[in-house]
Amino acid sequence: ETRKKICTMTEVSTPSVQDDKMTLTLFVMPGSQYSGKVIAALDSREIPHYVSFVDFNAKTRKLPSGNTMVPELLVEYKQEQDGEDGEKREPFILADSDAILKWLDETFDTKLCPTEKSWELTRRASSNFLGGAVLYYNWVNDVGYQRTMRKAIVKGMIPSFVPTFVSNPFADWQLGPERTKHKSKTAKMMGVTEAELEDEPTIRAKLKAELLFFQALFESEDQMYLMPGMDKPSGVDCSVYVMLERLVSNGGMGDVPLDPSIPEFRQETSDELTAMWKWYDHMREHHPIQFKGKRPSKN
Prior knowledge:
46% of the residues lie in helices and 7% in strands.
C-alpha cells in the first residue's frame, strides 16, 4: 500500500510545487517536543497543514507507516497534480523531525537550515545533550518524572477519585519499562554513563553549559533569532525552543497543557542566561506552538 512507504530524503523527489498542490498531514503526540519542532517550523513559514493526534500508548498508536515514533508527515498530492511524465504522484511518508525540515527546505525553499552549520546546530539541539536533558528530566530523574510523565498518566488514565497511594504506584508500574528504556537512550544522547545520571546537580550544570553554548550564537543585542542574519526562526530556533518548553514552560507545550519538569531552572539561571530567556520569551510571544485546531476533515 502506498501509504505504508516511508521515504528517505534520497528517495523523495522534490518537484517545484506550491502548497495548494499537495496536502500535508502531520501525525503527532500532543505535547511531543519533536512534533512541536515541526509545527513551529511549518507555522513560521505559513505552510498550510493538518495535525492528527495519535495515542500515547505505543501498543494502540496508529501511524501511517505502521511504526510508533512521531512525528510523521504524510504528503498527498492533489488528484490533478501528476508528474511531468504524466504519471500519478503517489503519497509518501517522512519520519523524523530533521528529515521533515530538510524536505521543507528542498521543496518550499523555507531556508530553515540554509547552511551546514545550521544543520549541525539543529541536530545538536535535538539529538545530543539538550534533547537528552528533556528525556532525563521527564523520564529518568525522579523529581522531574513525578512532575511530568507520572502526573500525565495519573490524570489521563486514572479516575480522580482513586487515591494517590493507589494511582501513583499504578502509573509507575505502567511506565517502568519505558523509564528503563529511556535511561540508556538518555545516557547515549547526553554522552554520559548511566551511573553519571544519578548525579543530578552535575547534569543540571551541564545543561546550563549547553544553553550557554547556544546563547553565544547571539552576536548583538538586537539579534532576534539564534542564527545571525535570519528574520524568521531557523531549525535551530525551533529545536531549542521546544526543548525549553518541556523543561521550564508554565503554560505547557504551546497550546497543550503540560507541566514543566524543572520550572525552577529558569530563575536559577536568570543572570547567566539573560539573552537566552529573552529570546525564549520572544519565541513564545511571536511563534506559539499550535497543535490544536488543525484536524483533517472527516469527509
